[in-house]
Amino acid sequence: MSANPYEVLSTGSVTHEPARRGAWRKGDALIVRSQIATLPDICLRCGEAEGTKKLNYNLRCPPQWWMLALPYAAPFAPSVSIRPALCAKHYRHEQRSRWLGHSVMLAAGGSLLIGFLTLEQINELISIFLFVAGFSILPILWVYYRTFRYKVLRASKIKKQDALIEHAPENLLQELPPVPNV
To answer: What are the φ/ψ torsions at residue 144 (nearest 5 degrees)?
Structure first.
């Protein structure tokens, strides 16, 4: 068998892809490649194999100090898109966290709309405050929240399209091939 994890295997007239593409183990760490990693249906956080659900996930490294000073640059930090399985507990936690972030953006949009619609009907100062809150304060809160919130998964290191996740569950790592020697 070839050491190339991207190679499509061919057996006679039947061609099939390897069961796990773009995901490898290295010690107790997991290496995943952006947008092609095929992971087993085992929770990437705790190793639970029952009742997992797949979730689109942008994997990022922990926030850096410069993200405090330049919050609008934080969403452009390197990320790797994967589709891991999460158990019911971690799936719920991640969904709840995402909905909180979306609620802040909806509040920003509502604040902008109310400020604009009531500009002539109520005190101008209140309308201006709502407009400013919707245009600047709430979006900055959203960026900080999205950057610094607790995330179920974080990468230890991202290099180009590959992410390293340390301390992955042992039963998940057993399902993956080792990193090929290239």
So the answer is: -60, -40
Mean pLDDT (the chain) is: 79
Confidence tier at 146 by pLDDT (50, 70, 90): confident
pLDDT digits 0-9 by tens, 93-122: 999 988 888 887 788 777 777 766 766 666
| Alpha-carbon gap, residue 70 to 76, rounded angstroms | 11
List the alpha helices (DSSP H) in 23-180: 66-69, 88-117, 124-132, 138-148, 170-173
For residues 99-136, one letter each, b for 16 or more C-beta atoms within 10 angstroms of the residue's C-beta and e for the rest, the string is: eeeeebeeebeebbebbeeeeeeeeeeebeebbebbee
CA gap 63, 59 in Å, rounded: 12
Q: The pTM is what? A: 0.72
* Residue written as token pair 């709309």: 113
Gap between the Cα atoms of 136 and 169, Å rounded: 41
Determine how many CB atoms are found less than 10 A away from the CB of residue 152: 19
